[in-house]
Amino acid sequence: MQLLFLPRRGFGLLLILAAAIMVSAAHQSSGSSSSSHWLPATATWYGSPEGDGSDGGACGYGSLVDVKPLRARVGAVSPVLFNNGEGCGACYKVKCLDKSICSRRAVTIIVTDECPGGYCSGGRTHFGLSGAAFGRMAIAGEHALLRNRGELSVLYRRTPCKYPGKQVAFHVNEGSTNYWLSLLVEFEDGDGDVGAMHIRQASSSEWVAMRHVWGASWCIEGGGPLRGPFSVKITTLSTARSLTTRDVIPSNWSPKATYTSRLNF
Predict the structure, then answer these.
(1) Are 31 and 237 in contact (CB under 8 A)?
(2) Cα dihedral 115, 118, 122, 128 sign
(3) C-beta separation of 127 from 120 below 8 A
């Protein structure tokens, strides 16, 4: 057997090339809001056959999932995609593979819930779709037959979220007080997810980091009374893009109210 020895310079070039390949691979597998790479997963459906899917869900969007633009596009995902709630709001395209019954059309779903057991356990990548979304992957006239298949092998990829005519909104969660304020982000175009949130009180120049509570909710606890109006800055998890909304939550805010900004990504 002949051994090939490389000069030091050649070996160094190989190391640089290998590092470049690793960085490229890591970038392609990161949580970008848009990807041309389809990845394997499985999918099932739940609720009524032509229904909209979950009512509420672990992300905390509540009744928002029952109305457009989320209606029938909601999806529950396994823990590897839910990511302790940091995956909430992300959008995916999902399509099935069996050409005898599946169309080429992919459905777009928004992560609103988690499926922690069953098909979703053991580190699997799994989507629980509404009956309506699941059926839309079928060729014309075969929606019911596709749903009868149960679990399907599918392909999925991230896709930018799009909420035409909508601006980023902040829902004040029930239980919020002048000493504990909890917010949930709605209608975020692009990445859809949230990696960090900061809040600035009235007459202050300091941005204070909010704490991730559960699902898509973040909170701040004040040592003293919190004073509005509040400006809020959100940073996406996938691409670290930031959006600052000035005085979006008024001084006379109330729990369970939603306040809409004039901006979106």
Answers:
(1) yes
(2) negative
(3) no
